[in-house]
Amino acid sequence: MLNYSYGARLRSSGEIETNVVLLSNLFDGLEPGQDRVIGPAPAPGKSIQIGGYQLIAIADQYGVEWDDQSSTATLKLVRAGHVLDRDYFIDLVKKNIALKDGQNSFSVDVASFKPIVVDKKDQDPVTLSEINWDKKTGKFSATAYLSHPSGDKMIDSFILRGTIRLKQPVTVYNSSYPAGYIIQSGDMHIEPNYSGKIPLSSQVLPNPDNIVGMSLSHAVAGGDPVLVTDLRRVTLIHQGDPVLITYSTPGLRLTATGRALEDGGSGQFVHALNLGSKMIVQGKVMASGEIRVDASSTAVPASSKEVRGLRLPTTMMNNGDR
């Protein structure tokens, strides 16, 4: 014989935190010891709607009599859940890569991802295995397994794909510049932890010291890495051009007239013939028609044996003419 509890009330709504529905999820004010499992709970994040006639049947079956019993009553029960979004899986991949490869300075992006919902109390809802990372392309794949399978094969295990990029110091543009623009020293800076996409070749990143004075072969955007393919050398001095040869030390500046023995762009080192001394010097192209020599530069006679190995035009070395 059932002992009916009096004064029980139908809840206005209910949240389920386990994988089963309890009688107390439906009714408040049950007698001590009366609570029990009455069925399976929906999947995390899902809900069920219970109508009045079903509620009356459940109350009769388990000896519950609530004060406002009605066939028009309804109750919605929601299974508490936690959404595993893109950021969750990015962090999960980072932890696994750090443990597997000992890498700590990298960024992760997950592609073609659909968020899933797991039990609210599940502290370690997903396990990653079979992690494959191609360090040349940056692409990775891994198999994700739910720690507590839901029975849905599409969710319980799936392939996770994306990219992993190591962070590295890279020279980037400070702003956007059009094709043909001449790069100045203030137009770029070194980003110490750049993690964007760059071509695979190790030869694509130019020496920052050699960029100033070069022109852009195409338009670039601020934040883009400076690549060899972006740049082209602007020829400021042509072979045979008259040049000003300068030498400077604190408190002293010497100049001489000369003739360029080879083409050169800004920052490049070229040979020139000093027309007064008939000596050949090597200097750095500073501007159109000007090269600068320093204390480390050694002048050699135009007629010396050392000059022959430089393969410079002998006609200009002999008389300084074209």
TrEMBL record:
Flagella basal body P-ring formation protein FlgA SAF domain location? 169-293
Asked if the Swiss-Prot or TrEMBL record annotates the protein with the keyword rRNA-binding, the reply is: no
Keywords attached to this entry: Cell projection, Cilium, Flagellum, Plasmid
Could you mention a single GO BP entry for this protein? bacterial-type flagellum assembly
Question: Matching InterPro entries, A to Z?
Answer: Flagellar_FlgA (IPR039246), SAF_FlgA (IPR017585)
**Keyword Cytoplasm carried by entry:** no
* Coiled-coil spans in chain: none
Q: Name one Pfam family in it.
A: ChapFlgA
Check the record and name the NCBIfam families matching this protein.
Answer: flgA_cterm
What name does the UniProt record give this protein?
A: Flagellar basal body P-ring formation protein FlgA
